[in-house]
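Long-time lurker, first post. I've been practising inverse folding by hand and with some scripts of my own, and I keep getting stuck on stretches where the structure tokens seem ambiguous. Below is the full token string for one chain I'm working on. Before anyone asks, I'm not after the true native sequence, just a reasonable design that respects the backbone. If someone could post their per-position residues I'd love to compare against what I wrote down in my notebook.
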């Protein structure tokens, strides 16, 4: 009786609810993803005339988000995933309001710290979905969530730039606070996921899973997440400088299109890749890291627009294969585990990879030029390919037969 009762809420959680969660994450991410590129314009209004703190402030929300994610995840498992997801959206709204009305660098910095500490909408959304879904349904939902992140990353800077003629990016923080508030109102109508079989046992390794999709240990998943984020994000901060170096006089529009190409690849192909690799994520992940390594190495030698387009598309293929297969592995690891804590910890390693990538990109670019970050990321991806394909990962395929 109890097992049958527990399965009913899972079946009732359908595509509409998944799309609602993904859509709310998309709108709430606009300020978080669209405004940081404009820090060099915001900081002079706050007294930092040379915007010397832009690089540090760019990673402040990420650092504090990484520190807070595991704690919020555990609290979600204890007090309710919906409640903590609403908390994350409201926390973002509060931080954005403070940032938009800040009149000093110290207050603005505090707002960014609060954005990291009180936010965490991605991990909270994944924890909510992980409580309602499992297996292929969960991995497909996580793939859709990554699509929301890519779409926001492409669209948000364009929208912010378009609004800048009427309202400064600094004040747009306050305006865009309405988006997470709206998301919170929409999420309030969704059900609280019912506790299910994931909490029925503390023996994580005894949870039966399908042999068709091997499951990595949590430690391996965290390491792969860190390596993936590091090798891809390291190319982001100085891509515009690299394009200017290879194509002198390139317009901001062209640079923006080149920046967006890998993310557009994900939006176009992610669901198809999920269908192909949902039963063989190890193969897809190795292919993803290989494409990333080759694509980033190609950035180091590409000297014309067609070559840059080609290597950006190759990087986009790697981004798509890697992200999708990581979501499949994450969905497998979520079986039999409290999803809030697991996805909170996964977010910690993701953000840690992003912070490490930012620091490595800054150091490499300052010493060796704008090509150094992409070559460093390519080397990291190549090492990860060897780690996946040569020394076999410790996989488990369920109970021994």
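-- Answer (accepted) --
I ran through it position by position. Result:
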């Amino acid at each position: 009786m109890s097992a049958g009762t527990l399965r009913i809420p899972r079946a009732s959680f359908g595509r509409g609810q998944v799309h609602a969660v993904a859509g709310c994450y998309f709108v709430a991410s606009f300020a978080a993803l669209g405004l940081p590129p404009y820090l060099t314009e915001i900081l002079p209004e706050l007294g930092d005339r040379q915007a010397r703190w832009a690089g540090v402030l760019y990673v402040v929300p990420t650092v504090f988000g990484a520190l807070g994610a595991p704690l919020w995840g555990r609290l979600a498992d204890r007090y309710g995933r919906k409640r903590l997801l609403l908390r994350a959206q409201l926390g973002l709204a509060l931080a954005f309001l403070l940032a938009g009305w800040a009149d000093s660098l110290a207050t603005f910095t505090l707002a960014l710290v609060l954005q990291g500490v009180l936010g965490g909408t991605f991990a909270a959304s994944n924890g909510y979905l992980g409580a309602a879904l499992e297996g292929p349904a969960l991995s497909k939902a996580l793939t859709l969530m990554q699509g929301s992140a890519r779409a926001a990353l492409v669209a948000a800077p364009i929208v912010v730039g378009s609004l800048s003629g009427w309202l400064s990016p600094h004040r747009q923080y306050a305006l865009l606070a309405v988006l997470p508030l709206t998301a919170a109102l929409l999420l309030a109508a969704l059900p609280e996921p019912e506790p299910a079989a994931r909490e029925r046992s503390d023996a994580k390794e005894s949870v039966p899973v399908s042999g068709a999709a091997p499951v990595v240990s949590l430690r391996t998943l965290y390491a792969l997440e860190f390596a993936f984020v590091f090798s891809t994000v390291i190319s982001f901060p100085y891509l515009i400088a690299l394009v200017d170096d290879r194509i002198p006089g390139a317009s901001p529009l062209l640079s923006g299109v080149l920046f967006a190409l890998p993310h557009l690849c994900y939006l176009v192909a992610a669901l198809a890749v999920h269908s192909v690799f949902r039963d063989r994520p190890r193969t897809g992940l190795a292919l993803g890291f290989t494409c990333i390594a080759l694509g980033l190495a190609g950035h180091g030698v590409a000297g014309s627009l067609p070559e840059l387009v080609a290597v950006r598309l190759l990087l986009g293929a790697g981004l798509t294969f890697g992200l999708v297969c990581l979501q499949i592995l994450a969905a497998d690891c979520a079986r039999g585990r409290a999803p809030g804590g697991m996805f909170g910890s996964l977010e910690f390693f993701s953000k840690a990879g992003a912070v490490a990538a930012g620091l490595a990109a800054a150091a490499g670019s300052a010493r060796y030029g704008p090509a150094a970050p992409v070559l460093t990321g390519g080397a990291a991806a190549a090492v990860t390919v060897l780690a996946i394909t040569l020394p076999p990962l410790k996989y488990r395929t369920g109970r021994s037969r």
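A couple of notes from the structure itself: The chain has two domains: 2-193, 209-396. Strands lie at 215-216, 395-396. Happy to go over any region you disagree with.
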